[in-house]
Amino acid sequence: MKLSSLGTLGGSARWLFSFKLTMLARHLAAGTFAAWLMTVATPYFALPMALTIVLILAGIVNLIFRPRVLVKGNLPARVMAGKEFSFRCEIINPGRMSFYDLGLGCFGLPREVEQLHRERLAGCLAGGGSVEMQVHLRSLRRGQYQIGGPRCFTTFPLNLFRSGRRAVCKHSLLVLPSFPQLNNLSLPMQKRYQPGGITLASNVGESAEYIGNREYRAGDSPRRIDTRAWARLACPAVKEYQQEYFCHVAIVMDTFIPRRRRAGKEGFAELEGAVSLTAALSDFMSRGEEIIDFFAAGPELYSFRYGRHTSQLDTLLEILACIGPSRENPFVKIAPVLFDELAVTSAVVFVLLDWDEYRKKLIRRAVESGCDVRVFIIRDKAASLDYESDQSWAGEITVLKPSQIREGELSGL
What we know:
Layout lengths: L2 H18 L2 H16 L7 H19 L5 E3 L5 E3 L3 E9 L6 E7 L7 E4 L4 E5 L4 E10 L3 E6 L2 E4 L15 E7 L15 E2 L3 H7 L6 E6 L11 H7 L3 E5 L3 E2 L1 E6 L15 H18 L4 E7 L3 E6 L6 H10 L8 H11 L5 E6 L4 H12 L3 E7 L12 H4 L2 E4 L1 H5 L7
Parallel strand pairs: 2-10, 15-16, 15-18, 18-19, 19-20
Antiparallel strand pairs: 1-3, 3-7, 4-6, 4-9, 5-7, 8-10, 11-14, 12-13, 16-17
């Protein structure tokens, strides 16, 4: 048998069990099949024949009363992982025929999205009438998914089969990572001078501040000459501005997962914990006046700057929603980009999945560049190397379990 034929059979089986047959029909079909098997030993055909006729007639009537209706309503574009969400749809019957036992649902969903309360039905929808129904879904894991639109169906009669028009369009659903709300973060940092800061500051909402005048000196820019002060003092004078100093924080997220490991239903626990913690840290720092650089590689390199009104936190959450595991050392890509920014970076926050020599060298480079450092390790098991002695030069190293982050046990770090 060709692979295309196997794929067609698999698709038909999924359609049959996920949409066409209700739970009652599955039990009745199983009972009918068992009854036919019993006729091999006992030639009694009345019961299996009656059950078969019931199934056939119910299927024919169900097709005849297939609802020809319009469904108005769209899924939300973005939701939060682990949260239940719902959307309302209006079902309009433009014809004269009445339809019974109508339901609304999304079928063929990815395993990361599940529907709740699928079998809630409307009694009757008369010709020319309309009814509103809600669909309740829950996203189990962050990511971007293509799902079918809501589909109206009927289970008339006997609640054995479903029939309804297929949803034509696909909807893109972006599931953002969930994260705990932090109320406190211990991260010492100092303001550092930003070379070319006037241009950078203008992009982040802070311009050079005028602090007074002074006498003109050789080499001063003619653009800074203050003609009013020159006329008042009878000597050339220039405007003097405060240098551009402000806090610049980098968040570096580890995404390395060994090739031998396979993801579960909720992904890799350590990586999901790192994503949630990164989102929590970013949310906390975005409330302040810092400029934040985000670095990750999973498997593509992500370098994103935000804070001080340069960009919304939602943009970073969208990036975090789609980051996957890196099967190779991600810091090979991150390190060159990070090193270019260390000279103007006040502090670096590392969200790691392990502790080894390569990560130690990376953090030591940040310390030697004059940056304050805070390290978080997300891990259930012991790290590859002992980190206790490294806290003398690397600062505080905090080890968190993925369950602590997932259950929202963190209020301050």
